[in-house]
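Quick one, tokens below. Sequence please?
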């Protein structure tokens, strides 16, 4: 099996809806669904591939885009297992958010009737293997649609988003069966690591992300004999042998040995939703799923074979290509009445990295190429940060030169930089400065304002043209993003100009 880590960093806030319905308040996910990664790759590659290749990469289940779960420092995290409970009214973690193992009871092995204190379930958090509980920060923002041409709020169009803030980091798994051609997998990695947009409102102000990939080892499942415990690392959509959705699947229906579900040792939460397909502009069929973090425990009546282990590694149930069905069988953390956490020493947090020199090999050559590409992305970010500093100085110089009061705008507005971004995304950067139809002209409000450039005065249009004409398309997009951020601070300044 070919497998890669995808380390995702949000460069802008990102919105991932728990459900696509427009009625009621918005509820956001605290992870990046695999379907978002699949959609980002498919949107760029689908038109370049044959029908068979597209089916293989995006629909067959042979390539699986796992959910992006939050990183705690360098450590990956997993949905906290719903089998864990702690005494109600007591603090289950210390000041560093690490769980007190002795206060956590695994109800797969503990009878709650024997406990003196009432316990409550741990949920809505992620767990690092050192026992740290990690919660994803989310922020709620209100938005409204404007009436075209009137610049005022359109009636009935006030809505809210729950967004994950920029700077958050996640790790997803991209896995492929051995019969998937390497050159196709390489194309996937290329488009994902070239910079992507994830979640809702990608064309407006959300979702810009960068991705770095690295090889990984397959998840190590525990030894299975007559008892099988599945810790769901993502949602699971299962069917009965009659093809009906179920939230209490038998192991045989999942392609595992015959057996029975043990309800007293299983902890299940469910949800139902209809995903929105942005390409078809319509809803897909409704899904009834067991949510991530749930624990299913089975008593097996038949031997567990290597074929079953292979099936576990490929995921269970439906929609595996979009990240569903990822499980951890008989994990060590669910092996006893209380969890035993891994002691982490400084510098060894990430077990997937190593400093040991590797022998020269084709794989090494390929990895070195990947590193060079990553360095290219890093260079673009550095140039973008330098551009932002120069642009902020240009805004300050223009305000000082004109003496314009702080409450009056100067220079291009955030929306004008948004137009620059649209041109860059659409590959129309050469049209930006077109005298007839371009988005930037010396005669335009904002772009016509004068600023200092060295010892000479120039308009913002001329100032930006010097830099944009020599930049490649990826750098132009970075410039536009940085321009929006700077304009939000400086277009209408809160500071008075210098005397």
């Amino acid at each position: 099996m070919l497998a890669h880590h995808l380390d995702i960093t949000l460069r802008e806030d990102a919105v991932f809806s728990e459900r696509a319905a427009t009625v009621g308040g918005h509820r956001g996910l605290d992870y990046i669904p695999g379907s978002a990664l699949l959609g980002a790759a498919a949107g760029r590659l689908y038109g370049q591939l044959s029908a068979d290749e597209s089916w293989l990469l995006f629909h067959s289940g042979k390539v699986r885009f796992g959910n992006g779960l939050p990183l705690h420092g360098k450590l990956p995290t997993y949905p906290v297992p719903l089998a864990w409970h702690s005494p109600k009214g007591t603090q289950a973690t210390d000041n560093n958010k690490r769980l007190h193992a002795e206060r956590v009871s695994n109800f797969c092995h503990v009878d709650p009737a024997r406990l003196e204190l009432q316990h409550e379930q741990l949920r809505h958090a992620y767990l690092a293997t050192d026992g740290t509980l990690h919660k994803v920060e989310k922020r709620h923002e209100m938005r409204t649609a404007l009436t075209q041409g009137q610049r005022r709020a359109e009636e009935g169009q006030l809505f809210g988003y729950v967004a994950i803030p920029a700077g958050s980091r996640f790790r997803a798994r991209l896995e492929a069966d051995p019969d998937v051609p390497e050159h196709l997998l390489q194309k996937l990695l290329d488009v994902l690591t070239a910079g992507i947009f994830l979640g809702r409102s990608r064309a407006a102000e959300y979702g810009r992300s960068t991705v770095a990939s690295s090889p990984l080892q397959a998840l190590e499942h525990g030894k299975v004999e007559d008892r099988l415990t599945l810790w769901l690392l993502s949602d699971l959509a299962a069917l009965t042998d009659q093809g009906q959705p179920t939230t209490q699947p038998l192991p045989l229906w999942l392609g595992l040995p015959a057996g029975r579900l043990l309800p007293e040792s299983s902890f299940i939460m469910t949800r139902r939703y209809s995903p929105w397909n942005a390409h078809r502009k319509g809803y897909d069929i409704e899904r009834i799923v067991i949510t991530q973090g749930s624990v299913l425990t089975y008593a097996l009546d038949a031997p567990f074979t290597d074929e079953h282990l292979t099936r576990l590694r490929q995921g269970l149930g439906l929609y595996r290509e979009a990240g569903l069905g990822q499980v951890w069988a008989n994990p060590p953390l669910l092996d006893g009445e209380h969890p035993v956490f891994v002691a982490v020493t400084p510098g060894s947090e990430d077990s997937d990295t190593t400093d040991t020199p590797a022998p020269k090999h084709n794989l090494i050559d390929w990895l070195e190429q990947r590193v060079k590409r990553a360095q290219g992305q890093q260079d673009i970010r550095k140039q973008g940060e330098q551009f932002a500093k120069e642009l902020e100085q240009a805004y300050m110089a223009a305000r000082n030169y004109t003496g314009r009061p702080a409450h009056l705008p100067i220079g291009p507005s955030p929306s004008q930089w948004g137009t620059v971004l649209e041109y860059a995304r659409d590959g129309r950067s050469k049209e930006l400065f077109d005298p007839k139809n371009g988005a930037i002209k010396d005669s335009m409000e904002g772009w016509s304002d004068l600023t200092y450039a060295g010892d000479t005065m120039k308009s913002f249009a001329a100032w930006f043209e010097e830099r944009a004409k020599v930049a490649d398309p990826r750098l132009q997009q970075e410039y536009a993003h940085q321009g929006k951020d700077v304009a939000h601070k400086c277009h209408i300044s809160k500071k008075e100009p210098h005397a």
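The longest strand covers residues 153-163. Confidence is low (pLDDT under 50) at residues 348-359.
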